[in-house]
DNA sequence: GGGGACGATGGCACCGCTGTCATTCCCCTT
DNA sequence: AAGGGGAATGACAGCGGTGCCATCGTCCCC
């Protein structure tokens, strides 16, 4: 009845099972060389005491923390969350835990902070999402610390770290083709935040599709947004104010597409009859707005799962230090979702 | 040049500074009783070696992990993310790290999983969000482990743990009053998922406002949704199909309000002239849909920050074991956002 | 001038586990 | 019968810090 009140340790288990702590450790870690009889006794003792190994002690002794970190820059909407859900799915199944850290990549002490996170916590591995994926300071710290990391949608593939992505350029290309196929020739474009990978790739895809169709890219139809609703409002205004205004607008993400739609509603346009709009990302928003938005779905969760798989795969081969070369670069399939925000352009008056 | 290649430890620092490791430890932990001279020498040594204390070792020895856990049930959209951002803000400032774990509260091994998370990782404290806030199994595990926790928007305040919330009943009351003041008398209501705290409180506020205004609650106007867009579509249909249909609809969250709006658009209603719609939560969606949605903003991030503050406040008083009694229950202010989805009802034909 | 009180520092056990190596026992070979 | 090899187990030294207590020198005060 009395019993020690503190949490049971491996020593208590060993004592109760009549074994050495090392043997208990073997059972806990599912190592070989334990007789079935002994195994059973120990498992019983574990159950009886409700023993749970202390991760801190374990990590200290084994130099493995079983911690995976997710470093991100902007807590950008549903994207970040989906990433986390994906990571969590895998972590759970493989006994890892997820630590999340936001890194203000603009701040002066990025270095200090990133270093503290990586080195103090002794993370086993790290997953990077934009815009930290391409931050040289962070990457160097990771390299120096010898912590394996996987980048989701990096600007540029590297030989030292794996990556996961979709072909954004191709997606933008296809989406633009869709508009062209409907008969649109004046297609406006709202870019995302400067220097973001996505911004560049999506824009490139748009340009290429136009060019391939023999349509010139008209700079008057290209606006610079920042991936936010607010940033896109003036862009939409300028585009729709033109005397020879575009019959379709490609916004670099759904949020900005929503701004275009709102602005069109303001002017009492009937959508999609008078204006086609497409977005990118398939955020929940896309399906809930009116009219439902034609957009591209990135399998974000699956991408995160793939990243986790790659990471955990490596970590499981203790002893090996380095990535296999060449390091894996996965490209997952995207989906073009044709909804009701696109239609043929209005007949020429 | 040669120097040890492994990460420097406190011993290296002590040696370099000509001090004992204990004194170095004092400096690292900002304890008192270190002479300025000694302090400076040690700080210099730390900088020179780029020393970073090993959290694992520190935790093991001190029985503090500096880890705060966020346990949640559904990764419900922007809400969860906002919570995390809030928590992160505080963790960062106080030297804590955030571990996130999803708990499938329907699964059979909730107990095992929750226990593993709490006990193995030796979390210093935990923040709970719906629907784990009220899971008796999880709560018991936390209590047993003696891990302090704060609940965000719990179903019921408890004497053993602090909570943070807004007055949802009051918010729903006010919002309903707004509709009444515009002249609406037939106000539809779409409830959230059964058993959720929010569902009950919001509905109660609605009923009370009606009653106080001398309007009877008509069960025909009350539909049961599940907080999702899809679940609300049939609800919206049924409400709008009625011969004497409501002139306004109160959806228990924005997502369901979006479904109502979409359904109204489908029928080519002009909003808000023919139908007023209100939601709850002020998700990003609310501002981006058309027309922009009148809704209630919960200061989610601030709530998370408050929760973290409460938790960290307690943790900083090491030695004290228990919450001060009575434990704090914070109620933050909400905001009613009047946008363009509400108007006076159409004049009686 | 003796006795505190207090500032400053160090010594050392110990937190709970894993890695390494030694040991024992058994069966199999030659 | 001796030797060899592998399965099963244990002893023990850390991993890198912190907590507690001892020590030492000063300054102060009656």
TrEMBL record, chains A, B:
<keyword id="KW-0805">Transcription regulation</keyword>
<dbReference type="InterPro" id="IPR028082">
    <property type="entry name" value="Peripla_BP_I"/>
</dbReference>
<dbReference type="GO" id="GO:0003700">
    <property type="term" value="F:DNA-binding transcription factor activity"/>
</dbReference>
<dbReference type="Pfam" id="PF13377">
    <property type="entry name" value="Peripla_BP_3"/>
</dbReference>
<dbReference type="InterPro" id="IPR010982">
    <property type="entry name" value="Lambda_DNA-bd_dom_sf"/>
</dbReference>
<dbReference type="InterPro" id="IPR046335">
    <property type="entry name" value="LacI/GalR-like_sensor"/>
</dbReference>
<dbReference type="GO" id="GO:0000976">
    <property type="term" value="F:transcription cis-regulatory region binding"/>
</dbReference>
<dbReference type="Pfam" id="PF00356">
    <property type="entry name" value="LacI"/>
</dbReference>
<keyword id="KW-0804">Transcription</keyword>
<dbReference type="InterPro" id="IPR000843">
    <property type="entry name" value="HTH_LacI"/>
</dbReference>
<keyword id="KW-0238">DNA-binding</keyword>
<protein>
    <submittedName>
        <fullName>LacI family transcriptional regulator</fullName>
    </submittedName>
</protein>
<feature type="domain" description="HTH lacI-type">
    <location>
        <begin position="8"/>
        <end position="62"/>
    </location>
</feature>
């Amino acid at each position: 009845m009395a019993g020690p009140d503190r949490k049971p340790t491996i020593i208590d288990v060993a004592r109760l099972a009549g074994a050495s702590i090392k043997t208990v450790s073997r059972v806990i870690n599912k190592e070989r060389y334990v007789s079935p009889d002994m195994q059973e006794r120990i498992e019983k003792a574990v159950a009886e005491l409700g023993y749970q190994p202390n991760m801190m002690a374990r990590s200290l002794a084994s130099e493995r923390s079983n911690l995976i970190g997710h470093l991100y820059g902007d807590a950008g909407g549903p994207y970040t969350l989906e990433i986390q859900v994906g990571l969590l799915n895998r972590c759970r199944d493989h006994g890892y835990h997820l630590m999340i850290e936001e890194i203000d990549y603009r701040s002066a002490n990025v270095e200090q902070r990133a270093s503290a996170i990586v080195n103090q916590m002794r993370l086993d591995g790290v997953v990077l999402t934009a815009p930290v994926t391409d931050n040289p300071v962070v990457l160097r710290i990771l390299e120096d610390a010898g912590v394996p990391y996987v980048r989701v949608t990096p600007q540029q593939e590297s030989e030292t770290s794996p990556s996961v992505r979709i072909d954004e350029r191709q997606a933008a290309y296809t989406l633009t083709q869709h508009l062209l196929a409907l008969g649109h020739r004046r297609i406006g474009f709202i870019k995302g935040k400067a220097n973001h990978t996505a911004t560049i790739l999506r824009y490139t895809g748009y340009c290429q599709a136009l060019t391939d169709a023999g349509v010139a890219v008209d700079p008057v139809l290209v606006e610079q947004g920042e991936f936010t609703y607010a940033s896109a409002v003036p862009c939409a205004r300028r585009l729709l104010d033109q005397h020879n205004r575009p019959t379709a607008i490609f916004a670099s993400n759904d949020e900005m597409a929503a701004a275009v739609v709102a602005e069109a509603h303001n002017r009492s346009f009937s959508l999609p009859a008078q204006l086609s709009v497409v977005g990118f990302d398939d955020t929940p928003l896309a399906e809930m707005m009116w009219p439902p938005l034609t957009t591209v779905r990135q399998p974000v969760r699956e991408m995160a799962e793939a990243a986790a798989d790659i990471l955990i795969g490596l970590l499981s081969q203790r002893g090996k230090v380095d990535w296999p070369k060449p390091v894996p670069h996965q490209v997952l399939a995207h989906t073009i979702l044709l909804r009701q925000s696109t239609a043929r352009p209005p007949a020429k008056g």
